[in-house]
Amino acid sequence: MSKDKIVVGLDIGSTKICALVGRKDKYGKIEILGMGKAPSEGVIRGFVANIDKTVYAITQAIQEAEKQSGINIRIVNVGIAGQHIKSLRQRGSITRESTQDEISAEDVNRLINDMYKIPTPPGTEIIHVMPQDFIVDHEVGIKEPVGMSGVKLEANFHIITAQTTAINNIRRCVQKAGLEIENLILEPVASSMAVLADEEKEAGVALVDIGGGTTDLAVFYDGIIRHTAVIPFGGAIITEDIRQGCNVMRNQAELLKIRFGKAISEEASENEVVSIPGIRNRAPKEISVKNLALIIEARMGEIITLVHEQILKSGFEHLPAGIVITGGGSMLAHCAELFTYITGMEVRVGYPTEYLSKHNIELVKNPMYATTVGLVLAGFQALDYREESYQIYSQPQSSARTGNDRKEESGSKKRSNDFFKKLLEKTKGLLLDDFDENDSF
Questions:
Q1: Smaller CB count within 10 Å for the chain: N or C?
Q2: CATH number for the segment(s) 235-300
Q3: Cβ(14)–Cβ(213) under 8 Å?
Q4: Boundaries of every domain in the chain
Q5: Which residues of the chain have pLDDT under 70?
Q6: Burial letters for 143-159: b for 16+ Cβ neighbours within 10 Å, e otherwise?
Q7: 111 with 43: CB under 8 angstroms?
Q8: What is the dihedral of CA 291, 237, 300, 328, to 10 degrees?
Q9: What DSSP letter does each residue of 365-377 carry, written as one string?
Q10: Residue 322: its pLDDT value, please?
């Protein structure tokens, strides 16, 4: 990958819209060239509810990112999330015509592409097809079928669908902002790229992205994404609870949450109070930090319980690497401890720093921007995949095979197998489709 390749990630979240412009440095790390963000007033729980407001916010974020980076942005990698996202498990198969040749990466691609054609509920479409394991002539549990001999190739798949209306609204907003979508990527998949280590995915881990409108979950085991879910609650509903419970304005409730909020009420002092300025010369209002923590703990406990139920539903409740929380909501004081208390699992906060260059905007090195950083990483991996595919499938073929040809073919198969290993790494929670929220506190 040439270092002059530029990738732009666009996170259309429920509380903010953020754009990041990145390129790879000579060490393969991502260097952020520019960043732009704007308040998101047209998105509700990951669903675009107001086209004009969303287009305006996208335009603002893109213009700011262009100004910082000096790059004219036209193509973006966009995240998608929301409670309309669904996942299902499906098995697919193909019968190969030739029984003499080895299974190739092209056979695997044909099987994967066939899965995009399976019927889905009306008003939905497939955005990701993720292989879990393969079966060759009824031999189960195969991770890398390329190079094997067999007639029938099968696989179990984790398939992600999204509401067609939601996809079309995102497309319309991006197009009206004068942009083109390169890849549409599930946001917890993008976040996982930014904050999870390969060892964690291999051992078994649950990524929880606590955004403004939703909380997204992705469960990994044996290096493969096994389960995804979207909880329709996030940081915004905690702010609303504070607004109603403390009888304050929304902006005051947000500030209270950020500056004085605690996810565990026992950590708050009984005697500590915060004075809030009154409206229009009215007397200041005193808010008990203990009461504030009780409000936050109640709602956050509900969100964590719903997340835990989804982890149990996945069938992978024993995860050696525990839970990694990220997104703006993960910045609440004692949030990780509350997760551990309710789930009984080890928990850490995920920062999107591992794949970033040292010379980066400090603001980006924050859980709030995990999704946007992940979108840039996913964009680069999609570019790598397309370039490698072109190199492999553009190799000239000959019907007559000499001894030298067979040696070259053997080398080609090895390259194909190496390619497939890389391909599998990318499909373990990433995107294979060329079709190609919501981080906030």
A1: N
A2: 3.30.420.40
A3: yes
A4: 235-300
A5: 1-3, 387-441
A6: eebbeeebeebbbebbb
A7: no
A8: -110
A9: SSGGGHHHHHHHH
A10: 97
